[in-house]
Amino acid sequence: MIKLINLETFLAYYRSPIGILSIKSYGDSIAEILFVNSPRGQQVNEDEIEYAVPKTTVIKKCIKQLEEYFSGKRKKFDLKLTFSGSAFQRKVWGELINIPYGKHISYLTLSRRIENAGAIRAVGTANGCNKVCIVVPCHRVIGTDGSLVGYGGDLWRKKWLLDHEAKIAHGVQELF
């Protein structure tokens, strides 16, 4: 028997230091955090965005935790998340959450962590399908050669996020 659940969807916008994030919730969980006007995010006229008070507790909590992250006070997020993807994608995203703040790993290392070293490209694709940026830190995965590659929120944001975390965690000014 299949039971259908109709969850209310809410959308809010948050102006971060590196651009506007759209935050979508389903019921009491966060389903998406994406940079607007980026390759993975929705394309909107930023002048037309309405920054209303979030209607749900989970979105308010998410924005508060993002503010703490950007101010250097938060290194781990405590949010209920809803993932929409294949079992393989969810496995990759689950492993992304285990990458420590201020650290980065390669796609090869990530594929080894999910015990599928030959799946580097598939891991990269799954990483690129992550719809909960920052909280599920896909920005912490770099090329096997140490280069800055692939980020749906634009590479300059990936660099900013990695440098931000390195500065807070290790006092390092710039990684890349």
What does this structure look like?
This protein has 176 residues and is an alpha+beta fold. It has 2 domains: 9-70; 87-170, Arc Repressor Mutant, subunit A (Orthogonal Bundle). The protein is 32% helix and 15% strand. The chain contains 5 helices and 5 strands; from the N terminus they run βββααβααβα. The chain has helices spanning 57-70, 87-96, 107-113, 120-128, 155-170, and strands at 9-16, 19-26, 29-35, 105-106, 141-142. A 3-stranded antiparallel sheet has the order 1-2-3, with helices on one face. Strand 2 (19-26) and strand 3 (29-35) form a beta hairpin. Helix 3 (107-113) packs across helix 4. The longest helix has 16 residues, at 155-170. The radius of gyration is 16 Å and the shape is globular. The N and C termini lie far apart (52 Å).
Task: Quickly name the level 1 CATH class of the largest domain.
Answer: Mainly Alpha
Mean pLDDT comes to: 91
> What would you call the shape?
globular
Class based on secondary structure composition and strand pairing: alpha+beta
Number of domains: 2
